[in-house]
Amino acid sequence: MGNGPEQVRCDTPFGVVTDRRLFYFAGKHIGVPGIQRQVPLEHVLSVRLERRRFITEAGIYGLLLAALITVSWAAGRGFVVVPHGKLSLVLAGLAALALIWGIIHSLRPHPKVVLTFSPPTQPNLLANLIARVFPPETCVIAWGSPQEMTAAHCFVATLDHILHYDRPLAHLLQVAQAHQGQLTLATALAETGLAAPDLESLLTDLMRQGRVDVGNAPDTGVLVYTFVDLI
Questions:
Q1: Is the pLDDT assigned to residue 2 strictly greater than 80?
Q2: Reduced to 3 DSSP states, what percent helix, strand and coil does the chain have, rounded to the nearest 5?
Q3: pTM value?
Q4: Of residues 175 and 77, more confidently modeled
Q5: Which fold has domain 180-230?
Q6: 95 close to 68: Cβ distance less than 8 angstroms
């Protein structure tokens, strides 16, 4: 979020997060990479990670496995005539293994990443009409395999940190700079638009880092936060 070279914060199968843009994969699903698209970070509203087990699919695989076992048992007892006996048994065994793997895979948590965006401002009337007919994406859902859970955590954590820390911090520093590096809590709340708990958390973190000092104004006694880097 500066004027230097763009820096990559996180590169995963769910997308790439830089300090300026988000590259995401529309239509990503299990085994399907999706189509890469990009959006400025200013247009990203939220990101969240959900976990889902495919219980219905596991149940279907279980029923198929039970049916396969029943047929195999019946064939072994001579109740059912199965062509190509040994070959059929081999194929049945492979099918059973595939179904067991499907049950285990379906019951493992799968990552589901949900992104929401603000609609982009259209530059002219024609673009606005086109956007009405073909609305831009404002919500993207990306699915991953259980093996991609760690990558999903990294993607969501990195983007969430930017949305809820880096972006508010940059805004706070801009406001502080406009006031010669000194802010009261009331001024900071009014001009940043941040919620009081979020602002206080930011200021506390900056004080812990030694980037902000706090003291009382000599004339009013009001708490004043001094941004050391901006003085």
A1: no
A2: 50, 25, 25
A3: 0.73
A4: 175
A5: Arc Repressor Mutant, subunit A (1.10.10)
A6: yes
Structure tokens at 190: 């009014």
Name the average pLDDT for the chain. 85
The DSSP-derived string for 116-131 is EEPPPPPSSHHHHHHH
* Residue spans per domain, the chain: 8-53+109-167, 55-107, 180-230
Q: Does residue 10 sit in helix, strand or coil?
A: strand
Structure tokens at 62: 């279980």
Q: Quickly state the pLDDT bin for 126 (edges 50, 70, 90).
A: low
Alpha-helix runs per DSSP H in the chain: 55-77, 85-107, 125-133, 149-161, 167-178, 185-192, 196-208
AA identity, residue 19? D
Spatial distance between the Cα atoms of 14 and 58, rounded to a whole number of angstroms: 25
CATH 2.30.29 corresponds to the domain 8-53+109-167? yes
